[in-house]
Amino acid sequence: MQQFNRHYFMENTKAAPLAAFRIFFGLMMFLSIVRFWSYGWIEKLYIRPDFFFSYYGFEFVRPLGPYTYLLFAVCGISALAVALGYRYRVAIVVFFLSFTYIELMDKTTYLNHYYFISLLSFLMIFLPANAYFSMDARRKPELASASVPRWSIDSIKLLLGIVYLYAGLAKLNSDWLVAGMPLKIWLPSRYDLPLLGDLLQIPWVIYIFSWCGAVYDLSIPFLLSYRKTRVIAFVLVIVFHVLTRILFPIGMFPYIMIVSATIFFDAKVHDRLLAWISRVFRINKQYFDHQKARLTSSMQGIRLKISLLAIFFVLQLVFPFRYLAYPGEVFWTEQGYRFSWRVMLMEKAGYAQFKVRNNQTGEQFYVDNTDFLTALQEKQMSTQPDFILQYAHFLKNHFEGQGHENVEVYVESHVALNGRRSQPYIDPTINLAEERDSFRHKPWILPFKDEIKGL
User: Are 262 and 237 within 8 A, CB to CB?
Assistant: First the structure.
């Protein structure tokens, strides 16, 4: 085994797939930033609100006021530099830090694909993606190489495989497979779609979508990895993600996943693609092709890098299962729900009415959430316990700042999960102003009066 590991980590392969992936990744990220800016979402999400929901442990990460535009500009420019392979190591580090900072500014905007991009950009810090077909390789011939370590390409495949596989495992539950939820809520609402609209009203069609979604996620990494099924698998990737884009407003994510899947193709496919880019932009591709492999190093030289990546991937394999450490249904409590590739598995609707009380005089009043939160923030807050707790602390501090004394904060909340009747959510007798956020179980979340079987 040790001899196999040594051979594998010393083995090189053509650099074209990694170079093409770098170009695709950088361009997609640049376009995502431009799209986000052009839609006015920086102003709407990070400038206009008066209050932001921070992640536990990252309370120091806040929007920067007008300088938030500068943060997005830095992120976009660094993404373009990654695509060009210009000062790549600095560019990918700056992109990872700036994008992750943006992601952490307000958990109201949490999306699985933001998390995926942060992970992927972190991984790319350790990869020699600028060794071939890059401005760095042209500027500094000592950096140029037509070959890269095989593990550098396989590590991207592994991350993609984890994302798909865990998304598929998360779908193996009774709500998704037996009840057809939440697709029974979402798909019929798209009745206005040409051709598909009428089909999406038929129950058995919805079940086909549910079951095919689970099978797709569980099988696609393996189908892409096997040469004889790769082309068919890539067609399935395109069909699946185009349908996803048509049915759900999830931005650039479908396109990012389609482009990412190209990493599974052989080097000759990427060579032809880079040759086409060379003709269009008049780049001398032969210069890069004639570079010798300069990246081979001793096992001692790559030991630290491999160790860090091993820790990284072990965390990716273990972290999604942290929900098992908490009692109760994860869809209900959401303890361990985020960052676990549970993609579009639930529909929650609820309300949260906050009561501020003076514990000495008994005087009390109710809070109008619209005085402090945007519509999106209120929607997210009303169904997620850590949001509710953080908002309760904000209310305590706010009203104490206005001169109120002996402030207690209570909430009356109800939540409906995946089409069920609304149920009481948070214990209304608990003074949330005295509760502290942590990674521990939150006992003030009321029990879920049903059962969802599965993973």
Answer: no
- Residues 321, 342: contact at Cβ < 8 Å? no
Q: What is the pLDDT of residues 377-404, one digit of tens each?
A: 999 999 999 999 999 999 999 999 999 9
Question: Tokens in use for 450?
Answer: 């049903």
Token pair recorded at residue 187:
């798909």
Global confidence as pTM: 0.94
CA atoms within 13 A on the CB side of 186: 20
Residue 288 corresponds to which tokens in the numbers above?
């890069």
> Could you give the CA distance from residue 122 to residue 259 in angstroms, rounded to a whole number?
18
Residue 129 CB contacts under 8 Å (≥ 6 apart), including other chains? 18, 19, 21, 22, 82, 85, 88, 92, 152
Nearest in space to 69 (alpha carbons), one of 36, 21, 29, 94:
36
Determine the longest span between alpha carbons in the chain, in angstroms: 83
Give the three-state DSSP class for 57: coil
Distance of CA 3 to the CA centre of its chain: 37
**230 contact partners, CB below 8 Å, separation of at least 6:** 223, 224, 264, 265
Q: Where are the domains of the chain?
A: 2-170+266-322, 347-434
Q: Which pair of structure tokens corresponds to residue 369?
A: 């959430």
